[in-house]
Amino acid sequence: MWKPHKQFIAGWTVRYYAGLKDSCWDADIECGNPNSTNPVYPGQGMARKGSVAFNDAQFRYKTSWNGSISVGVNNIFNKKSPFYYNVPSHGSGSPPINPQFDIDRYFYVQYSQTF
């Protein structure tokens, strides 16, 4: 009988963020609901931004000395985030991207040791 090899582990994660409302500064370009009242800036309309999902994968090998070596990819499909006007920022010049979202696809290697 075949037994799975417990030293190798593979995982797939989907991080889903629901859509939300955002300010729109130009009603002619992107305002999906220009007649809706913006509670923060009363003279502006509102735009509906769609949901976003990021897919991540990780492969891990457990060593015999209680170590763990991981190789992974976050944002496998290189999903781009929509731009938001109401992004919390702490200074001028911050990009209009939600800070919880990935900016690009990235790879990583990690080593962990348990004592």
UniProtKB/TrEMBL annotation:
Q: Does the keyword Membrane apply?
A: yes
Main subcellular localisation:
membrane
The cross-references to Gene3D superfamilies, in alphabetical order and at most eight, read: TonB-dependent receptor, beta-barrel domain (2.40.170.20)
Q: Which organism is it from?
A: Dyella nitratireducens
Keywords associated with the record: Cell outer membrane, Membrane
From the Swiss-Prot or TrEMBL record, give the protein name.
Iron complex outermembrane recepter protein
| Compartments it resides in | Cell outer membrane
